[in-house]
Amino acid sequence: MAFFSRPGATIFYELLGDPTHPCVTLVNGHTRSSSDFRMLARKLGENGFSVLLLDNRAAGKSEVTGAFAISDMWDDIVALWDELAIERSHLLGISMGGFISQGLTINHPTRVGRLILVSTTSEERYIHSTGPGWSVESGKTEEKMKAYFGPGFVDRNPVLFETMVAQIRQAAASGRFIERANYQRDAMRGAMLTNQLSKIKAATLIIHGDSDQVIPEAAAKALHLEIRGSKLEILADVGHLILAEAPKRLYQLVTDFLIEN
Asked: What pTM was estimated for this model as a whole?
């Protein structure tokens, strides 16, 4: 557990496992922290990888002094790799983290081994609003959160759903959560990488849920068309939060892709 200073930000990170093993860097989505990746990191470690976890600027334990660009977020990762003497890393990004990962791979192609894009897009127009920002008011967080899951998931997993809602409501009521969420959202405004996707030469796996209401399946198919040689896995009846909704399937797809010849 450590912190790394960057212009306008302090980045929290952890490097897990044997640093001589191939590295996988995990990049999370809007407002989410690296703590979501604990089980995936464990699975990757069991399969012979070291894992770099970090909180994007303005999320988790990472701090920020003001507004920033989306490019600052992928530059943070490259600077962290330089600090840790990681010459090359596999890269997995979820949602906003997937966009960050695309930008990094386009701009620093020699630094990325394999690329995994989960529940993401290459341009802002595919991102559908789920209503007003996060709120502490009863009912509003629940309704907004339901849009992130596939059909029937909330009814089948009421305890998990309520726990996630409580975490969001608690975060929104404390500290700078909403301010920092807005910084990240503003950084994504007008984001567009589609016309640069042909520059991605890394072996790429795209994973998406067919019931994603935040970023529709069409966005994943568009990525697949533009990234030559990419693989596309569509998960049936799964929404935006694949890491919570179909973790075992996700872990298997990721590990199989990273260890294949």
From this structure: 0.95
